[in-house]
Sequence to fold (646 residues):
Amino acid sequence: MKLIAVYLQQILKRFMSKLVIVGTVAFDAIETPFGKTDKILGGAATFIGLAASHFNVDAAAVSVVGGDFPQDYLDLLSNKNINIDGVEIVKDGKTFFWSGRYHNDMNSRDTLATELNVLADFNPVVPDAYKDSEVVMLGNLHPMVQMSVLEQMTSKPKLVILDTMNFWMDCALEDLHNVIKKIDVITINDEEARQLTGEYSLVVAARKIHEMGPKYVVIKKGEHGALLFHDDHMFYAPALPLEEVFDPTGAGDTFAGGFAGYLAKTEDYSFENMKNAVIYGSTLASFCVEKFGTERMVNLENSEVHKRMQQFKQLTQFNIELS
Amino acid sequence: MKLIAVYLQQILKRFMSKLVIVGTVAFDAIETPFGKTDKILGGAATFIGLAASHFNVDAAAVSVVGGDFPQDYLDLLSNKNINIDGVEIVKDGKTFFWSGRYHNDMNSRDTLATELNVLADFNPVVPDAYKDSEVVMLGNLHPMVQMSVLEQMTSKPKLVILDTMNFWMDCALEDLHNVIKKIDVITINDEEARQLTGEYSLVVAARKIHEMGPKYVVIKKGEHGALLFHDDHMFYAPALPLEEVFDPTGAGDTFAGGFAGYLAKTEDYSFENMKNAVIYGSTLASFCVEKFGTERMVNLENSEVHKRMQQFKQLTQFNIELS
Fold:
């Protein structure tokens, strides 16, 4: 029976869009005002993959872990239909580890530890079967690693999305500019958009980033939602106001994963459909912050996503007749 | 001809909802990174009235000014169809004066001067013709002044809206609680909501304010928009992302004036219609910040408001079919 299921899955995949995700698969240790964790599953590719798994796409993660990485975590990704052929296991290496402590407002944090370990020498290898993926999601990593993934694609992707952070602006700005030139969508937070452009106004910052290459700019504002820019068009999705943000770790990656997954599934890369992708990204991110690390995302049902999408509609939609 | 016009105006007013506005009519002197002003027209009732003048309502301002207040400014309000019978003129007194300097981010400011002058002994008098107003807008003032206006109403208003600030929480908290008990809607900014309740989460803060009396709670988040709460329902209106915020003075009052004016005009005080009122408030506030003080609001055409409302629709509306 299991063989038949696997075989049917293989056939089904032929009809799905492919989404290749490069990013970290990692250990996180997190402290928030609500408590702290030991080393738990984390990493950009993990959160992106878990979010994208809610859409009917053939997703593959490209990453690296050490010999200390539990098989259970790899199985968890596989069971969510995330292909892990591109996740290299360096037997005698240690997995990337990040540790941080959030302040009371949950909007700022201190990094307590960053151990690159196997990430220091990471050479991403895109599996042959995914070199013709329709959508490429370049999770937050050194821009040269992101570029390497792009260069391995044998056919031009329909959409390339890049996520990055201030760290690469500080230490690899030229490389970052080189890869930004080659992408369609950038997702970046508000402070990073300001740093990258030297502009305080997000409208002006988005225009300057647009001039660097990406036709679409998504500025993530944490609890204040996300803005999508394209030419003179703007779209604003709020974050769902929550009683409690338990742990913001991975929320930005989850947003990107929902955004990429929805677009890959629908194969409609128009601005109008990107609005929907932003809403799906925001919806998934609103779950991510409810528990530590990936805990909420691992156990998230599609029916819950559907219900929260309806809440998002009620939160944002109004009915004024304008002649 | 002029007499006929005045007479027709009188007849027309019989079919309009009445809106009574209490608040300051004042001089402001403002410094921003873009420049500075001498003493110009300001005050909560001024901004609220100018915003409300875009709706077909019979609005009256209740306030006080000194003998130094230019007739031109009073005429300006009258010409916008704001009744000023309730604006007391203290001939030998000086008008309330506020001066402030905004920081580069435009989200914070230093108060340079606050001269209460005639405001120190202000006893508001609601004109008889407005004691049966459908909507009462209590602009930011001492809560006892706000209470006094409520007590003068001879018939119970359909809707009482109150705006306040942290200053009254610091020095007149008990009076503030007393008036909050008697109102339907409170408009308050995010930091003030946190101060009033001791809660960081705005969802929890709104619930606690709800328990203090108001059935509807509007939390203003400046450039991040506004949230409307009612029981378990939430609505989120973004602020229009702008290339440049020139001067934020009066934006919150303009929001409140648009909110109150729209509700008075439509006479529909449901949650669904309040969503529309929040959008109108946000739209009008987006104009207010484009120039110093009241300058933009004084010259704002209805056609411009209509056009920006359409931008707001595009900014926030999406089209996902959810079964």
Q: What stands out?
A: The radius of gyration of chain A is 19 Å. Chain A has one domain: 16-316. Residues 271-288 of chain A form the longest helix (18 residues).
